[in-house]
Each structure stands twice: as structure tokens, then as C-alpha cells.
Amino acid sequence: MTALSSSFRGTVGFSNRITKLFGIDYPIIQAGMIWASGWKLASAVSNAGGLGIIGSGSMYPDVLREHIRKCKAATILPFGVNVPLLYPAFDKHIDIIIEEGVKIVFTSAGNPKTWTSVLKEKGITVVHVISSSKFAKKSEEAGCDAVVAEGFEAGGHNGREETTTMVLIPAVVEAVKIPVIAAGGIANGRQMLAAMVMGAEGVQLGSRFVASEEASSHINFKNEVINSKEGDTKLAMKELTPVRLLKNDFFKEVDEAEKEEQR
């Protein structure tokens, strides 16, 4: 990724509620992908004019603090931290985020009312990831500044509703007044345009960034993502915590274990 020259920053000619909310040039947000998105990826995205996100879900508290400090050293531009509320020690993550002066937090996989007011009192911008209009409204009521509406096509963990991005985005836009960021199956400019035509004011990309040089994912995983085509993934563990997996030997083991449990 190439950072924009400081002389051009803020002059790219595009502005909406999302770019203003985060102080970025492009309404492009890099998803917080647990072990794949550390400080190198987050700072690279921010330096290129988007919003980089550190994925804290797989990090011990002291590791998160290290990544935040390295990210601050690598960019003077805004970046955020994603906090999955279902992971252990997320309360310690919140404490570190506040202590380190992070200004943007994306929460996911939990009740937005749990921490939004605490973060807002500290002057932190809060965005919650949702998969339905119902939870978009709850996020707005909780005081969130925006929501990420994540459709069924998304990689990683998904909502149980299995609502596609094409259906979800306009429904969420109609349901709330706060800005909506579209996610799920978005990887290029045409898909970004489609999301914004449906009313989204920004897009969040995961799989596209997970294959980048700066992502901390293994090169073999990156190659599998790059080489995969339609039909090469499937949602698994729907009864526990839905997650999209590549169809490989590991997927077969998970699939067989699920079938055995249902017998």
C-alpha cells in the first residue's frame, strides 16, 4: 500500500459522514480480523487514506498494548481497534484502549449497550457490527456513531440470520439515521459503488486486506484466499458461532463433527 502525500491529504474531493466521522480520505475501512490484522496492516491502511483497524480478539492485553503503541509510531493518522465482546478479557482490552488514547473502537459479537456509553464518555467514536435491522436500531439507541452492516457473504464470523448484503444494506439504511458501513463480499470498486448506491456511506473489507503483504496471516492462507473462487467456502458451526471456512480438510473435520453431534 502506498501512503498519500501529506500535501494531498484531505483534498481528494470526496467527503461524507463516514470520512468526516473518522477523519479519513476514503470511506474504506479495513476489518478487524483477529490474528490477521495487527499494527502493520492497520497503519498501512490509515497511511493510504482509509481507516486501519487492529483486531484485538486474538491478543492478550499486553500484546494489544504493544500493537497500539507500534501503530501510533507508524502513523499519525486515525486508526481504530476492533473488540469482539464474546472473547475473554475484553474488559481489559477496553481499559488499555482508554489508557492508550485510541479514538475509534469497533465492537462486535455482543450487546452494544455494554460498553458504548463508557467509551463515549471518554470521547471515543464507537461503531458496532450488526447483521440485522433489529440490532442496527439497538446500536443507534445505545449511542453508537455508526454501524457496520455485515451481510452473509462476509468471511470470518457471521450473523445467524444469513441475510445477504444486497438485502441487508438498504434495510439497515431505512432503519437508522446514523451512517451505515457495508460489509460482506465487497472487494473492488464496483462492489463498493453498489453498496453506496444502496445507501451505505462506507465499506468494510476483510478478505481483500487479509491477502495483503502487511497482513500478519500466513502466506499459505493468503494464497488460498487469492486462489479461491465462488463455492469454495461455506458457513460452519451455525449453532455455536457461525464462521466461514474454506472447503479443505479442516472444514471436512468440522463438518463431520457437527453431523455427529446432530445424530
Number of domains: 2
Output the helix-strand order.
HEHEHEHEHEHEEHEHEHHEEH
Number of strands: 11
CATH C-level class of the largest domain is: Alpha Beta
In short:
This protein is of the alpha/beta class and 263 residues long.
Question: What features would you describe in this structure?
Answer:
The protein has helices spanning 17-22, 39-47, 61-74, 90-99, 116-121, 133-142, 165-175, 189-197, 207-210, 219-227, 249-262; strands at residues 28-30, 52-55, 79-84, 104-108, 125-130, 146-150, 156-157, 180-183, 202-205, 233-236, 243-246. It is α/β, with parallel strands linked by helices and 263 residues long. It has two domains: 17-227, Aldolase class I (TIM Barrel), CATH 3.20.20; 232-263, no CATH class. It has an eight-stranded parallel beta sheet with strand order 1-9-8-6-5-4-3-2. It has a three-stranded antiparallel beta sheet with strand order 7-11-10, with helices on one face.
